[in-house]
Amino acid sequence: MFREFDYDTQPIVEIVNEIMADAVKNRASDIHFDPTPNKLKVRMRVDGDLVDYAYVPDVVKKNMTTRIKIIAGMNITESRLPQDGAIKTELAGKPLDMRVSSLPIVDGEKVVIRVLDYSTSLQGIENIGFSDINLEKVKRMLGLPNGIILTTGATGSGKSTTTYAMLQALNKPELNIITVEDPVEMKIEGLNQVQVMSEIGLTFASALRSILRQDPDVIMIGEIRDDETARIAVRSAITGHLVVSTIHTNNALNTIERLLDMDIERYLLGTAISGIISQRLAKKLCPKCRGSRPATDYEKLVIKKAINIDIDNLYTPVGCSECLGGYRGRIPVHEVLEVDQDIKDAITNNTPKEKLRKMVYGDNKTISLLQDGLKKVVNGLTSFEEIIRIIDIETDFGEGDEELRMALMGKMPIPHDEDNEKEETIITEDKNETTKENNEVITKNESIPENKEPTQQIIMENGEAYDIPTDDQLSFNQGAFNNISTDFNYDDYDIDDDDDDDDDY
Questions:
Q1: DSSP label at 497?
Q2: Would you say 113 and 98 are in contact if contact means Cβ atoms under 8 Å apart?
Q3: Strand, helix or coil at 37?
Q4: Which one of 39, 224, 233, 449 has the lowest number of neighbouring Cβ atoms within 10 Å?
Q5: Angle in degrees, 0-180, between the axes of helices 12-25 and 58-71, rounded to the nearest 10
Q6: For each of the chain's 505 residues, which pLDDT tens digit applies?
């Protein structure tokens, strides 16, 4: 992927165009121009990872930064303050939108170009990676006349792609759909899209107040960033509008907590919330070179506990000329919470979090991020390692199943086959015979000395051995015990009845 350009003869305009074309060709989501004391390092984020692409000599790095700022409509004379811009161009007859951001650092100006590709959104909501069950939930939520539907996830998790796909599904002539975005990333015919301009006072909150007087049926808010925007969004949802928006949280339960932290009354949130879509992006296995390997005991245990599927083999990345390390592209992993009346009432009544968690995930009501990811692992879409990498063990495993959490952490013992778990003692005449009983090893002595009763030994897991007296020995010892004098004077001994000494035993 690494390129070398002839900076002495090749125009800087041509070099910048080739960089952007290569970014699109390699499915890069971002292009980084990182200044260093003696060069400009160019990197591309492909499938979530930054990869070195080119090194620009110090003598021309300023020219490259200036060229990018010119085509992005930014002020080329200002290098002391951060700036934002946009690039709209065509590549192979296909319109291309890019967002540009500059940031002054000690070695110069760092520039990042975000490559916006919403071709997946245009393919319809059926083609963005939802499982059949989750897709049906999303369609039901979009069919509601009012309420708020939130898409959550970290930066770069595909929230905008999912949101635009939902707007495409709602985009009908009989509906008045108005969006408030910062910035407007994708222009869609049939939608009334508002660009936020905070410098002149056109914020999310102020735009929403005006939109409510525009007779909207559907309102899309690019992102809920502050308390005022959240309150207006919720009140819009309970006054007969369908609201679609995004918010930065990890999962469904965290989204509810986040909105409550924004000073939204419980009864309003319980009434307004209709659904929450949480998502992450996982690297997709290259279909041309993916291989197969035996699953480990750990992987078998986790998959069995999470989705109740027995597996013997798993797909694994291999690597070829058409991918990077065995991965090509990314797929979303979803958690779709369809908020029913019971959950609405629980939010309103301040139900404890653990009880609410059981209501959300119990009885397979909601497929967790872990479960959806592992189903994609079993289907060969991604690897087990990739799903474990993007999953938060503490919060993404469903209803708080302790066994599943321990399995994920690798602290749960691997179960044996049922045949090996049977508790039985086998008696034979073979010497050195060993059998398993209650996880203890019982060994019959190889030889029995003369004039000595036969004994058995218990060898514990720590290696310590203990003799077990036979029935004959027990009879002898009991008889000996009966012959011991029982004359005992308690006054001769200092006996402490303090219960605290029990800790010593």
A1: -
A2: yes
A3: coil
A4: 449
A5: 70
A6: 788 998 889 999 999 999 999 999 888 999 999 999 999 999 999 998 999 999 999 999 999 999 999 999 999 999 999 999 999 888 767 778 899 999 999 999 999 999 987 777 677 899 999 999 999 999 999 999 999 999 999 888 889 899 999 999 999 999 999 999 988 888 888 999 999 998 898 998 899 999 999 999 999 999 998 899 999 999 999 999 999 999 998 888 889 999 999 989 999 999 999 999 999 999 999 999 999 999 999 899 889 988 999 999 999 999 998 888 899 999 999 999 999 999 999 999 999 988 888 888 888 789 999 999 999 999 999 999 999 999 887 666 555 566 776 777 665 555 544 443 433 333 333 434 444 444 444 444 444 444 444 445 555 555 555 554 444 444 444 444 344 444 444 444 444 444 444 444 3
Ranges of CATH 3.30.450.90 domains, the chain: 12-116
Q: Which of 54, 50, 13 is nearest to 30 (CA)?
A: 50
Distance CA 225, CA 233 (A): 11
- In this structure, the strands spanning 177-181 and 434-437 are unpaired
Residue recorded with tokens 């409509």: 73
Alpha helices in 238-317 (DSSP H): 252-261, 266-272, 297-307
Residue with tokens 């301040």: 350
In contact, 49 and 330? CB cutoff 8 Å = no
418 Cβ contact partners less than 8 Å away, ≥ 6 residues apart: none
CATH code of domain 120-408: 3.40.50.300
| Contact (CB, 8 A) for 120 and 165 | yes
Residues 6 or more apart in contact with residue 393 via CB below 8 angstroms: 405, 408, 409
- Amino acid identity, residue 172? K
H/E segment holding residue 467: strand 465-468
We find that the CATH architecture of domain 12-116 is 2-Layer Sandwich (3.30)
CATH 3.40.50.300 residue window(s) in the chain: 120-408
Query: How far is residue 72's CA from residue 63's CA, in Å, rounded to a whole number?
Result: 14
Query: Do residues 379 and 337 make contact, with C-beta atoms less than 8 angstroms apart?
Result: no
DSSP, residue by residue, 192-253: EEEE-BGGGTB-HHHHHHHHTTS--SEEEES---SHHHHHHHHHHHTTT-EEEEEE--SSHH
Closest CA to 167 of 144, 190, 185: 190
